[in-house]
Amino acid sequence: MERNFDMLYLVMVVVFLIAGILLMLWNRGREKNGPGHIDDSGMVTLKSLHLPTRRPKIKRQSNTDASLESKIQVKMWYYSIDGDSKHGPITEDELRRLLSSRRLLPDTLVWTQGLPCWSEASTFKMLVT
């Protein structure tokens, strides 16, 4: 009877040892695979990420070539109120609505794919009509 308890104790020690090793290996694999980990409460928390803090520099262009305006295929637009930050993407209709309601002014800088640089909204007839 005493021998059975010794054998049971030995089996339990081996099982807990193997479980600990497997848990350690599993945690190492998760650390390598992603920026987050699970804390004691079960919540996933992110490690600190180094995000760029520089704001985009926006070049102004006062006049836009009319032929360039007709070549624009993409209808998603971005706009900048202060010349440093950008907002969007929004559709051409939404941008037109913001301009007509005076929530954005004609000198607001806008950009869409296909334009060489940011331009004032008033230079595009399709936006200010």
Explain how this protein is built:
This protein is an alpha+beta fold and 129 residues long. It folds into two domains: 2-46, no CATH class; 60-128, Dna Ligase, domain 1 (2-Layer Sandwich), CATH 3.30.1490. The protein has four helices and seven strands; from the N terminus they run αβββαββαββα. The strands form two sheets. Strands 3-7-6-4-5 form a five-stranded mixed sheet. The protein is rod-shaped and about 95 Å long.
What is the makeup of the main sheet? 5 strands, mixed
Q: What is the residue-averaged pLDDT?
A: 75
Q: Give me the count of strands.
A: 7
Question: Would you identify the CATH architecture of the largest domain?
Answer: 2-Layer Sandwich
Q: Give, in spatial order, the strands making up the sheet with the most strands.
A: 3-7-6-4-5
Backbone structural class: alpha+beta
Shape: rod-shaped
User: Could you state the order of secondary-structure elements as H and E?
Assistant: HEEEHEEHEEH
Helix content: 25-40%
Any low-confidence stretches, pLDDT <50, length ≥5? none
In DSSP terms (H or I, runs of 4 or more residues), the helix count works out at 4
For this entry, what is the oligomeric state of its chains? Answer: single chain
Report the sheet-strand fraction.
Answer: 15-25%
Radius of gyration: 30 Å
